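Here is an idea for our session: we take a single protein and study its fold together. To get us started, please write out a protein record for me. Once you have written the record down, we can walk along the chain together.
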Amino acid sequence: MLLLKLIRWLQFVHPIVKGALTIGPMTSIAIKKYYPTAAPLKSLIKYFWVLDSGRHISLHHKILPVNNIDILINLKSPMTFEKKGVTYKTPGNIYFQGLSGNHTLMQQEGTILTIGVSFFPTGFFPFFKIPVSEFKDDTIGLDVLLNALTTELEDKLRAAKTMAAKITILEQFFLGLLDQHPIISRETTALFHQFYTAGLPVRAFCREYGVHPRTLERRFNRFVGVTPKQFYRLSRFQVVLNKLIRPPQATLTDLAHDLDYYDQAHFIKDFKAFTGCAPSDFLKEKQSFKQIMTIL
């Protein structure tokens, strides 16, 4: 039950509005968050975030797995990614990554201005109406889904003089993609809410609430992008990151016990699968962009 309470906190409670991304011993960049003001967006978009260096810098960071999708809008220096030993550039300046269980290495050098749109786990689907599992483990340019609308959006964002104006443009853009009526039924919304709060393994949840496991899996794949089990692992990993990074720092033994791992060895194995290294090595690296975004 503790785990599901923590997962629920990560998904539904707004984090701190402003933070910093450390890029060197004495250097940091402000990361600002802006919350949607339009009522239809508030249950779908967690926040817009902005990384603005204001000067020439060099970033080398890990992007860690999370349980939701972010759209990234890169308005200045190009980014390069490496995943599973394969290096690639972003497919355009506006793109997103489907949910994945693997970390990605990101490099960017120059003046940086990146705007992110961070969705709630079920928030992406209502805008694009494509099963989210189709994007799993992939990086997709938004123009693949929206064609010329993506170019129009980028042109408007570049022309806007202030960040407030850019955020307003983004809100109007996403409002224009929504249907008049909710596209995810009340029944499905209630089912997700029950899963988030029940504190039960998948099979036990299905027995308790009379849901066939395949039905639950289909809905998670369609609206979230992964299976319920994969979502559970990703959410638990986010909890682990917060408890490792936020003071007072939890011990590995306590984390393994509190978060329902079989033992500490299982916990470390799971952590390595997501980050590519052991928890102790990860804390020494201090180079994860999503680490910073998670704890803000």
